[in-house]
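User: I'm putting together notes for a lab meeting next week and I want to include a structural view of one of the chains we've been expressing. I don't have a solved structure, so I'd like a prediction I can at least talk through. The sequence is below, exactly as it appears in our construct file.
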Amino acid sequence: MADLPRDPLPQLALVGRSNVGKSTLINALARQKVARTSAAPGKTRLLNLYLVRLQGRPLDRLYLVDLPGYGYARGGEVSRDSFDVLVGEYFEQPTAAESPHGTPAGPTATLLLVDARHPGLEADVAALAWLARHGRPVVVVATKVDKLTRAERVRHAQELERLHDGPVVGVSAQTGEGLKDLWKTIDALLRP
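Assistant: Thanks for the context. Below is the predicted structure for the 192-residue chain, given as structure tokens.
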């Protein structure tokens, strides 16, 4: 954790199952390819931080943090244990606002990414409960909404909101659908 940023900029962690589209969403939010993507799940093994400079937004800079996906780890149980330790240590760090200047900082808030096509996966519900215990703001984001019919979107959105006990932001990194609403949510989430 010594390599974490030591500046006061907010960190927005993206958490989700492997292959839910964390890296793809980071690229869509940054409006350029900064995160490597792969069709094979389990490729992200470390915390990858991307400093994003924003124009015309309340925040002018923030870190987007790509965390390894849960639910699949290349290499078996050792990799799963390493994931638990790595992500757990990151979430134990104080936020940049709480951290004394010059000490590593952890996430300010979290986006929990879930696949819009598969509402109610046990791993996603467990991840939200785990995140809630860490006391940082969490927003649930349903990815890949472009792969659903109009009727499925409505039905799955209602199911996701019921399961996660609150609003869910639906997005498609491929078409750009929902990104404007997601940015509004991020601005509100990270507003000092």
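A couple of points you could mention at the meeting. The helical segments are 22-30, 77-92, 122-133, 150-163, 179-190. The first helix runs from residue 22 to 30.

User: Perfect, that's what I needed.
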